[in-house]
């Protein structure tokens, strides 16, 4: 090649080097990286956000969020935000797993973790709330089923006092007959554990018929405390106990009907629930035990109950543990022929 021909060749090389330097200089950018409370400013030739973070020795961990995303191309000066994920404990039944996220609202955390809730399921804190300081979310899976049970409605025995018989003598006027009902119970399970079983509906297919017995007795009741009272009739009944717990009455404090009887009075020791077809609401009663349990005593028929049919009586006992211990037993219920003082209605609790 002649000397004259070399000039254009070297000129082309020079132009190429200058062009390469110009291209490289065109990718030089000033970027700012904000990470929690730290801010780093640097110059980089990186072409993407992810490459710039690598250049800055910033390692991303599970759940971290970069704004803009790692794939974003850098075309000028740029501010990059790195949001560090924090651990959240997701508790479901006996299991716990750790999930890393930058979200703080419970609903968004669950969505990010792929957790779906059914209508009955519960979550604490609520989905609309911010995560608590302990960064723990409890998921309670709630399942509901309904169970049908046939139940015998035992007939009552009503004693009609008469002067035509000697004291202590009895005479059967008409035989009783048990009734039959179908009870539907609502069972509620939390994380597979039965936590509530409530009577949801009761259909009586056959009403019980009371046995009627005449008895020649003086119409004078002498209570366990030696107090004489005259009464109109006496009925042998199956007794249970109830209290103000949700399991017993199906209401929580704050409910306008919480602690209020069917008659509109306040539930208290001495108040009982009856079937108004057997014992008229408002009747003054004396409940006498037929076993070693002490008498429930003077009481007032002010309440009813969906399961209280026929010769059933439900005694209000304020203390939950005592109500459970009472169980089921038979009692004599005297319908009094004279009023009683409210202070006499001490109930089982005392």
From TrEMBL:
Gene3D superfamilies in alphabetical order: Resuscitation-promoting factor rpfb (2.20.230.10), RlpA-like domain (2.40.40.10)
Any one Pfam family match given in the protein's UniProt record, by short name: 3D
G5 domain boundaries: 139-219
InterPro entries referenced in this protein's UniProt entry, alphabetically: 3D_dom, 3D_YorM, DUF348, G5_dom, Resuscitation_pf_RpfB, RlpA-like_sf
Key words of the record: Signal
Membrane-spanning segments: none
CDD domains associated with the record: 3D_containing_proteins
PANTHER family documented for this protein: CELL WALL-BINDING PROTEIN YOCH (PTHR39160), RESUSCITATION-PROMOTING FACTOR RPFB (PTHR39160:SF4)
Protein name (Swiss-Prot/TrEMBL): DUF348 domain-containing protein
Lineage: Bacteria, Bacillati, Bacillota, Clostridia, Eubacteriales
């Amino acid at each position: 090649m002649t000397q004259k021909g070399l000039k254009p060749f070297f000129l082309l090389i020079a132009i190429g080097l200058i062009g390469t330097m110009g291209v490289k200089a065109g990718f030089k950018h000033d970027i700012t990286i904000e990470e929690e409370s730290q801010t780093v400013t640097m110059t980089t030739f990186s072409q993407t956000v992810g490459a710039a973070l690598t250049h800055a020795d910033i390692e991303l961990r599970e759940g971290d969020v970069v704004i803009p995303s790692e794939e974003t191309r850098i075309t000028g000066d740029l501010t990059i935000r790195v949001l560090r994920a924090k651990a959240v404990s997701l508790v479901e039944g006996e299991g716990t797993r750790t999930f890393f996220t930058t979200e703080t609202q419970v609903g968004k955390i669950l969505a990010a973790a792929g957790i779906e809730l059914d209508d009955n399921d519960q979550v604490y804190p609520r989905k609309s709330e911010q995560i608590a300081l302990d960064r723990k979310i409890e998921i309670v899976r709630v399942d509901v089923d309904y169970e049908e049970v046939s139940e015998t409605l035992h007939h009552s025995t009503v004693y009609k006092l008469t002067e035509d018989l000697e004291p202590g003598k009895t005479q059967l006027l008409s035989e009783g007959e048990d009734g039959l009902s179908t009870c539907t119970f609502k069972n509620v399970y939390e994380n597979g554990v039965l936590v509530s079983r409530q009577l949801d509906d009761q259909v009586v297919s056959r009403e019980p018929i009371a046995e009627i017995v005449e008895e020649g007795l003086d119409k004078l009741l002498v209570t366990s405390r030696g107090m004489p009272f005259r009464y109109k009739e006496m009925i042998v009944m199956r007794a249970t106990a109830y209290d103000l717990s949700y399991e017993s009455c199906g209401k929580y404090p704050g409910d306008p009907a919480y602690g209020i009887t069917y008659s509109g009075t306040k539930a208290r020791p001495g108040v009982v629930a009856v079937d108004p077809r057997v014992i008229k609401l408002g009747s003054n009663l004396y409940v006498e035990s037929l076993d070693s349990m002490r008498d429930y005593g003077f009481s007032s028929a002010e309440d009813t109950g969906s399961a209280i049919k026929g010769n059933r009586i439900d005694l209000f006992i304020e203390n939950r543990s005592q109500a459970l211990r009472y169980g089921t037993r038979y009692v004599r219920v005297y319908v009094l022929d004279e009023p009683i003082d409210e202070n006499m209605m001490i109930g089982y609790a005392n």
